[in-house]
Design goal:
The chain is α/β, with parallel strands linked by helices. It folds into 2 domains: 2-202, EAL domain (TIM Barrel, Alpha-Beta Barrel); 208-340, no CATH class. The protein has helices spanning 47-57, 59-63, 74-78, 82-85, 104-115, 129-134, 150-162, 175-184, 209-219, 226-234, 237-247, 261-282, 290-309, 315-323, 327-331, 335-340, and strands at residues 2-12, 18-26, 67-72, 92-96, 119-122, 140-144, 166-170, 188-189, 198-204. It has a 9-stranded mixed sheet. Helix 1 (47-57) packs across helix 11 and helix 13 packs antiparallel against helix 14 (315-323).
């Protein structure tokens, strides 16, 4: 078991009803002392925290029926690996952080993901050409009212609303700032005037990494069938738990609860189970290291692009070749031994 700490801060609509929650991550080693620490966005090494939080705890337990706002690292966007993390959902809004490197690859990646149904927020807008370009790819903008004079806030709001963007007033520290934000026309409101970020703690379940790798390997065999996959998953308690939490989550909104591994695999299908298993493999203790995950994702994207150039049609398999090229580092064993297992 591992301890995971989350900061949760509400975002309110004009009637001061909760529209959603911003979830942020705190270093587990800091524990209670981290309440006053700066909030951490989702970097590559936080993949396991993201996945475990939203699947093991469930959206309902974390935020009820509200939306979730999550920071997202640039690499997850540009390398296309956000798709491996989480399916698009109207309840998930991914935040493009303020200090991100803005360039053409990032903008094109955001536009492509928007076309697939993903939702994005531009965090702490700055009035320059680079941020202007990002406005074409997002639906929300967050503006810090503590650092923005009222006339400037009015001007920016007019521009944002003309683009059809919703604007969140952040950094609201007192009643005066709230009233000013309401008067000038902000759509949503957030800040310590309402509440401090609430620190949540839960115990995440760790999986047997070699069992996960066996599953990923089996899922990429051309003649594998659903029964074999279900049998493999059923051999590991943690894997079984994670899969059942996943299929019974809000992403699928199934009319009846799924309680068998075989039925879960049948409903999801090989492609979705493959993506799920890939994410679990990436979120293991060794794979959660940012350097190793970056190497794996870069190799995976390279193999995918090379496959396209060479006319190879198995796009998922090409991606997987690169991703699994670090298996020996993940398992801390020679590659022949890992493959034999």
């Amino acid at each position: 078991m591992k301890e995971i700490y989350l900061g949760r801060q509400p975002i309110y609509d004009p009637a001061l009803r909760v529209e959603g929650y911003q979830l942020s991550y705190y270093p587990a080693e800091a524990g209670e002392a981290s309440k006053d620490a700066p909030l951490l966005g989702i970097e590559m090494e936080h993949t396991q925290i993201l996945f475990d939080t939203l699947t093991e705890m469930g959206l309902e337990r974390l935020v009820g029926e509200s939306k979730v706002f999550l920071n997202v690292a640039r690499d997850l966007l540009v390398q296309g690996s956000l798709r491996q993390l989480m399916a698009a959902s109207p309840r998930l809004v991914f935040e493009v952080v303020a200090d991100i490197v803005i360039d053409e690859p990032l903008i094109e990646a955001l536009k492509a993901l928007r076309q697939e149904g993903y939702h994005f927020l531009l965090d702490e807008y700055a009035d320059n050409d680079a941020y202007q370009a990002l406005l074409e790819a997002v639906e929300y903008v967050r503006l810090n009212v503590s650092a923005t004079p009222e006339p400037e806030a009015r001007r920016l709001l007019t521009s944002f609303h003309q683009r059809g963007l919703a604007v969140i007033a952040s950094g609201i520290a007192d009643q005066h700032q709230l009233e000013m934000s309401q008067k000038v026309g902000f759509d949503f409101f957030q800040g310590r005037h309402f509440s401090q970020p609430r620190l949540l703690k839960f115990q995440g379940i760790q999986t047997n990494q070699l069992m996960v790798l066996r599953l990923v390997s089996a899922l990429n065999q051309p003649d594998i069938d659903l029964q074999e996959i279900a049998s493999l998953i059923a051999q590991d308690v943690a894997l079984s738990y994670k899969l059942l939490r996943y299929i019974n989550s809000a992403y699928f909104s199934l009319p009846q609860r799924v309680e068998s591994i075989q039925r879960a695999v049948a409903l999801l299908g090989l492609r979705t189970v493959r993506s799920w298993a890939t994410l679990v493999s990436m979120s293991g203790a060794e794979m959660a290291r940012s350097d190793l995950m970056t190497i794996a994702l870069v190799r995976a994207k390279m193999c995918e692009l090379l496959g396209e150039q060479l006319g190879l049609k198995q796009r998922d398999s090409n991606f997987m070749v690169g991703l699994l090229s670090v298996l020996d580092l993940v398992a801390q064993a020679p590659m022949p031994e890992v493959l034999a297992a």
